Amino acid sequence: TYTIAEPCVDVLDKACIEECPVDCIYEGNRMLYIQPDECVDCGACEPVCPVEAIFYEDDVPDEWAEYVTANIDFFDEI
Ligand code: SF4
Q1: Is the backbone of residue 23 left (phi > 0), alpha (psi -120 to 50) or beta?
Q2: Whose CA is nearest to atom 8 of ligand 1?
Q3: Cα–Cα distance, 41 to 78 (Å, whole number)
């Protein structure tokens, strides 16, 4: 799955939402989140993010590793 990391916080550009073919990107209070079970790994969202907040799960920088969990937890809570 793809995941959204810290650069999205307080930006929420939403260009990714327009691109996602399966509509699996959702809006939280301060950032957007990718529903990991719905993401089909197409990669369409990654290049359109103006702040480069989107990464394939294996490519998330170490300092933002917690965001992989945050994306999963966001959907466990709703
Ligand atoms: Fe949507 Fe594709 Fe991005 Fe997954 S990789 S969130 S399916 S646009």
Answers
A1: left
A2: 20
A3: 23
- 53 Cβ inside 6 Å of ligand 1: no
| pLDDT tens column, 5-55 | 999 999 999 999 999 999 999 999 999 999 999 999 999 999 999 999 999
Residue 31 CB burial class (10 angstroms; 0-12, 13-18, ≥19): buried
Indicate the top mutation candidate among 8, 35, 37, 41 to test ligand 1's pocket, ranked by most ligand atoms within 8 A of CB. Answer: 41
Q: Is the CB of 20 under 6 A from ligand 1?
A: yes
This prediction has a pTM of 0.94
State whether ipTM is beyond 0.90: yes
